[in-house]
User: What shape does this take?
Amino acid sequence: MNIFVLMKRTFDTEEKISISGGKINEDGAEFIINPYDEYAIEEAIQVRDAQGGEVTVITVGSEEAEKQLRTALAMGADKAVLINTEDDLEYSDQFTTAKILAEYLKDKDADLIIGGNVAIDGGSGQVGPRVAELLNIPYVTTITNLEINGSTVTVVRDVEGDSEVIETSLPLLVTAQQGLNEPRYPSLPGIMKAKKKPLDELELDDLDLEEDDVEAKTKTIEIYLPAQKQAGKVLEGELADQVKELVSLLHNEAKVV
Amino acid sequence: MARKVLVLGEVRDGQLRNVSYEAVGAAKTIAEGGEVVGVLLGASVSSLAVELIQNGADRVVVVENDKLAQYTSDGYAQGVLAVIESEQPEGLVIGHTSLGKDLSPRIAGKLSSGLISDVTSIEVEGGNIVFTRPIYSGKAFEKKIVTDGLIFATVRPNNIAPLEKDESRTGDVSTLSVDIKDLRTIIKEVVRKATEGVDLSEAKVVVAGGRGVKSEDGFEPLKELAQVLGGAVGASRGACDAEYCDYSLQIGQTGKVVTPDLYIACGISGAIQHLAGMSNSKVIVAINKDPEANIFNVADYGIVGDLFEVVPMLTEEFKKLKVNA
Ligand SMILES: Cc1cc2nc3c(=O)[nH]c(=O)nc-3n(C[C@H](O)[C@H](O)[C@H](O)COP(=O)(O)OP(=O)(O)OC[C@H]3O[C@@H](n4cnc5c(N)ncnc54)[C@H](O)[C@@H]3O)c2cc1C
Assistant: This one.
């Protein structure tokens, strides 16, 4: 089974966020594998271990993503590919990323492609389905279970808390939801082995893409932090009085009940 | 510039979801005086067209086909793309729901268009349609514009105002026949877990419980409070993981995103992944026995105390308020 994982290096949103020069300040920030992509990597490894084959983790980004790719290799992926757009693209959006990934994947005979259902930084959740559409293969998003039997695939999809049991076939793209599995931590031997595993680096040229082919269709014109919320009011006094005060505040001041 | 903007009406249990009316409101802004055209897909949905029109659509195109009885991305993509083909719109708005999240990128991929997802407000600024959306788990916001092609957005439920309903409004309802074929994903079974009653993602009041609720029974007082307020019950992942309630109640990055008028967090510590699902609520109340809990940093009002004491007292107090009103 030829398995590909779409991975994104993301800012750890548990970090404090500040803005400088109209951009999110990344100095000294912690970067991680997007948590939903960790589920994707774990699932890919489990499928390979059960069915045989190979797991290739791909990312579109900058050289800095090599660290997260090595982590994926240390978890157990076989190969990694970095499509480095740092020198070619100043601005990109989901159209750009999906187009690049699809261009890379189109002649790879992928049986299964797994991504996270959303990245915690941009939060758009578009890349998976866009890639499937460009490759003209079926997809199922936000999955919590995957079973492969020959070329028949049964997946469970989370739909706002309800579950759909879906039957489909390979080749297939799925996006991972929390609950799919428990991603493993890289082991020490895994980390040692990862250093010797192949990590290829490509640029747009290598995919016969021009900048114009992948030019973003949307543009961010401003990034800002939410207005500092006024410090909330923590009520004091006898509990019974606090409760009365709260109800009165919600009714008279906030006017929400 | 006047535009023609399509809005997909999302039908659930035979009714249009509120977010579809909000999407009509969004489409009206994008249209800048142009035409808002509702799109309805399903096995038998034409009776809902009048609802879309009364809520602001100028006319409606209905695609009825038995293969659209249930949502599949293949079926719906064919339906929507056929309407786009025949209408040639300049804009498209869909709710940022499970369905919208699954379908929209597919359509954008097919049309090689941009897509601005999870929009919470829309303004016309200097000739541009400017979309605002939360990023970094709601810790920041970005403003985006479409620079090329279709103006396509999905809108987060409960954020964009619907238009005033006008029962005297009329408009043309036409049908488009589409041959739906090659469904590559087949839904074998739907396991409904979401509770009956008020839809969590569209509720005006949400009473949410966390690990502090301590048991399945611990949710009872929360349910009573929600009922008095006509709201829905939600939960943190902590509570779901501990099996106090079903995952269908989970609010947060992985669960539902809610923006009610009033969010009451009971025994929830306020982890960033939880905040991602509720921090844009209009008014947040925190009830937690730990005065240092992070939830107090986003709360408008807080009570430091035992939720098992506070919640029933609140319920009683709200009951009194209702009686006096
Ligand atoms: C990839 C990823 C995705 C995630 N997605 C989500 C998500 O979508 N939603 C989500 O919620 N979490 C999510 N989490 C988990 C999140 O990080 C927290 O672990 C979780 O929100 C904690 O739940 P909690 O606040 O109920 O529990 P805790 O953090 O254990 O907090 C319990 C709180 O209850 C208080 N308490 C206890 N007893 C009482 C009492 N009697 N009265 C009043 N207060 C009391 C305590 O003081 C404490 O503050 C995610 C994590 C990851 C890694």
